[in-house]
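Tutorial sheet, problem 5. The two components below are modelled jointly, 1158 residues in total.
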Amino acid sequence: MNGHDPLERLRSAVAVALGHEPADLVIRGGHIANVFTHEYEQMDIAIHQGKIVGVGLWYEGVESVDATGKILVPGLIDGHIHIESSLLTPAMFAAVVLARGTTTVMADAHEITNSCGLDGLSYMVRESIVLPLDILYSVPSCIPPSPFETCREEIDAEMIANTFRRSLGAYLGEMMNYHGIVDGNPNAWDRVNAAGYRVRTGHAPELGGEDLCAYLLSGCDSDHELDSAEEALEKLGRGMWLMLRYNDLSRDSGDLLGVLQENLSRFARCMVVSNNVSARGLHENGHIDHLIRLMIKKGVPPFVALAMGTLNPARYFRLWDRGAIAPGYNADIAMIDSLENFAVEKVWKRGKQVVSEGRFLSDLEPCLGRLPNATTNYAAPLPEQLAIPAKKGHRIRVIGLREDSNLTDELIMEPKIKDGVLVSDAARDMAYIFVLDKNQGSGRVGCGFVKGFTLRRGALASSVGHDAHNFIVVAADMPSALTAIRTLIENAGGLAVVNGDKVLAFQPLPVGGLMSLDSAQTVAANDHALAEAAQKLGCGLNRPFASLSFLSCSVIPELKITDYGYVNVTKNRLSSLFY
Amino acid sequence: MNGHDPLERLRSAVAVALGHEPADLVIRGGHIANVFTHEYEQMDIAIHQGKIVGVGLWYEGVESVDATGKILVPGLIDGHIHIESSLLTPAMFAAVVLARGTTTVMADAHEITNSCGLDGLSYMVRESIVLPLDILYSVPSCIPPSPFETCREEIDAEMIANTFRRSLGAYLGEMMNYHGIVDGNPNAWDRVNAAGYRVRTGHAPELGGEDLCAYLLSGCDSDHELDSAEEALEKLGRGMWLMLRYNDLSRDSGDLLGVLQENLSRFARCMVVSNNVSARGLHENGHIDHLIRLMIKKGVPPFVALAMGTLNPARYFRLWDRGAIAPGYNADIAMIDSLENFAVEKVWKRGKQVVSEGRFLSDLEPCLGRLPNATTNYAAPLPEQLAIPAKKGHRIRVIGLREDSNLTDELIMEPKIKDGVLVSDAARDMAYIFVLDKNQGSGRVGCGFVKGFTLRRGALASSVGHDAHNFIVVAADMPSALTAIRTLIENAGGLAVVNGDKVLAFQPLPVGGLMSLDSAQTVAANDHALAEAAQKLGCGLNRPFASLSFLSCSVIPELKITDYGYVNVTKNRLSSLFY
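Model answer (structure tokens):
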């Protein structure tokens, strides 16, 4: 009956759809949230060979599940995530998001590819292929992310094309080199064209007007960098699909949701995405379910919100087999209490139940074969490399952190000078910031200052530093900085909070300096410990390591720092410490 | 500057988008109807190398057109049409629809393929390839349309696959053999599977419940056979894209538009289509513009109506380069006075102006190379073949015509008998109906009776008889029937109104018995002449030849007639004349 003869499989699927033969499974008595008609239907769902074959009231099943009083929704889809940002490996990530109703994620593994090259991407694909979560990887388009930072190996247009040929990627990862596209740089355009007929995802912060028009000629027609309602509306109007992140949804003034709600048709080309998400966030708040809850609370009609996490991303990514509960679709289904509350009780992936009472049913382990190597021959910087001589009569540039945003400001401040050398100044919240080339071990260090951490003493250090993921350290004093750097070198990465020569809290990240082998729960607990330790040093940020990690991101404006020093992203060039 | 070096073309497109170099053309000062945001934007459109490269207020052009006070809309798209139904060749069809703002049509050439085999399809493609209208052809899926009628040559699954390989078709034509699909008939399923990854269009009149579920497993996920609001809502809810025809839009009770308007999100998977359209209709009322006007008059929000003739069909057919006015899209644009009135003034196809003051600018001629041959060795039926002996005690089945619908009813009536033979009875509006095998010239004739033409004398005859396009004749008396048949045989097809031995009106159809070589205007004038002649014979129908042509359509319920005799479509079997 379940033979491999295609005609027999087909005959049997049709017979089940017609109700002539029993289905493998019937989910009975629930209310289906229909994303096509935007209404509930009290109908049974017949599942056969991993597919939904029928929706109706005439089905018998070998197995049957009672969903009376429950809502049945299509498995959720995350349209854009860097799984590495959760510090979880694909397996541990799958366990936590499946329990939240997610059954498909579009993953841009550019963190691990920056840190470990194609070996990193291949590790992610290898670990994902057996999981009961569909993780569809992009081929990263921008490695290195900019000419101003050091990645493990460059992935050029020919390597992108070849990676597609090997079927290691399903679509083109976010084209962050918008300067290259807008400047008609052949290097950027060749990478885009290497994607051929595939979906090309975008990243175009603050781009508008003629620059946005030029960018769109590349076919990169989605964006998750939406800093204002005006920006979002312009991008939508020029043909982009909007990917809304938590920050975009929770923003209060200049409300992005508001401008979409003026005409509900605008939501048709919108989806919700994680982009970056912490294990703690996943564990405590949830995944796409969390974003749907938030939107409904903000007044988005529940079915519109649901479509943004199901049908809309499926259509953008041309995944015709998912995003709805309908005949012929994959049997990826979540059973919840209500759209508004969205408490996930059961989840089926291709017809197999994987979640019960909100708990993931199997014990996934990360793939413990060969892990991708991060470079290990880090050259520890000499103390004199970190000591910048003052320049008489010059003020200095300082990175102005914005909390809960990846954008920064360029501040101009009077330096503090000691023995002819620039030093930190806790009184004015001016801390050291260093970025050390981890990826190629050149010994190159970028030095600068940052305002916003309110560190009175000690240091934070991280091997997670978007997008190249070199070591990044913020410190109130030099001894703490040196301890922090040593800790990362000895452990081949990790997240550290130190004070003087003491390590107060540490999260190991053995997979490429980016991912733990632990579960979301364990990583979430460490996250609390790190935040508390940072708080004791005076740090006033909610999520200090998230903030830290984006200070090296040389594709999001305005002033950032890499192993080459300051980068003015708006002007697309390196910038001097001295003003 | 316009060289063939791709990098140079690209550099130049980017330079134009940025406003650094002049565009080929700037359309200036108009209000763009933005189908993404559903609002008007007063913006200029920069066009370069046939593409829209910029939307904004900063463009200079080598050429410039003033659109002040006008509305600019994306070129219209017809998601489903049988061009042959207009009796126009592709070139003459293009001339009339371009003037109405249409720039893309999805054409299912199954009429000519029934009548002339793949030679017919190849003729259509050959004539279309040089036209300034994108006609994308399907590979017809159902030739013959059913086992109950005679086409020129069967197009089986292997021929479908091979026709795709030769790039003669872009998608699978409407799968009308819903009985075969629902019965799990390998012949039907093989044809569907021959489409591979391509869009598969559907045709599933009155299908619902478990049958609809089974049908949808085939991946044929659109339908234009929507007889009621309930049927439409069920099909939408099960995942189908709805193709709304004129009849669906103009219907008053059980209103299909009403059920969609309950929630505007439902329109996202709807489009408007012609399916069948007459040259007269095109000439006098318009094409997709006519349907948009009608929808707006019926209360559909104007931008929603516009999207149903632009963005929505483009997305269904995965044509990512059209359906909107945005950077990177084809420069297919119409300039109109308002969405509500939709009077087309200018049209650009790939940046080239093809319509001015509502008139098509060039003199297209039909491709006068080799025309596809319809079979010419028709065997004229012997009079005794048309004379059916009465059966004592038996009533007879009569086709009950429904005006303005392709559905019919099975009526049971007392026969009129003369000399032991069944004869027509004008007093009870019971006319002869005959279908003669034109395609293979076997001499096979199907005989029956029809009620609804109100013919008092004379006969109507047509070589347009869906879907196999054999000769179909309705007659009040036998001498007229014989004259009508002779007229069609002598002219290798055509539309004729005759009385006794006199031909009152005639439309020649030299191309496969389906298409004229004349313009829409000429064919429209003939249409009037034919209708007037029919009216003089007592025929009370608005469009007698349209009604006639569907009486042989063996895939639309309930009682139809082919060269094999009566077909009960609902029961999917031949049916006896005698009850």
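Marking note: Residues 496 and 506 of chain B are 5 Å apart (CA to CA). Full credit if you identified this.
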